[in-house]
Amino acid sequence: MAKQHFFFRLIPPRPTFAQDANESELALMKEHAAYCRQYFDAGSILAYGPVLDPEGAFGIAVLEMDDRAEAERFAQGDPSVKAGMNRYTISPMRVAGAQGSRA
């Protein structure tokens, strides 16, 4: 079966989170970053990172997984979600094209 793509949005606990996260929140975000890096290195995340929207930053990832159930398992396993700090949404998507970073 072909892999499916999903848009994962990580929703922080407040719009000012990027500016005023406390030490315990920052520690959870380090765990979140390490968790995402494992999936990225395994090829299940095609791109990820923060979106620095002036109205409130949030995180995104483009997932390539077997099905929605696998995407949900990824989301629910995120340390920041498991701790109840962040929420998420997952939407199916179609990747029309992608390139690697040119940096």
Task: Write a structural description.
By secondary structure, the protein is an alpha+beta fold. It has one domain: Dimeric alpha+beta barrel (Alpha-Beta Plaits, 2-Layer Sandwich), CATH 3.30.70. It is built from 4 helices and 4 strands; from the N terminus they run E-H-H-E-E-H-H-E. The protein has helices at 17-20, 23-41, 68-77, 79-82; strands spanning 4-11, 45-51, 58-65, 87-93. The protein has a 4-stranded antiparallel beta sheet. A hairpin with a 6-residue loop joins strand 2 and strand 3 (58-65). It is globular and about 40 Å long. The N and C termini lie far apart (33 Å). 17% of the residues are buried.
Chart the SSEs and their pairings.
Layout: E1 4-11, H1 17-20, H2 23-41, E2 45-51, E3 58-65, H3 68-77, H4 79-82, E4 87-93
Antiparallel strand pairs: 1-3, 1-4, 2-3
**What is the N-to-C succession of helices and strands?**
EHHEEHHE
The backbone outline, from C-alpha atoms, is: globular
CATH architecture term: 2-Layer Sandwich
Number of strands: 4
Low-pLDDT runs = none
Mean pLDDT: 95
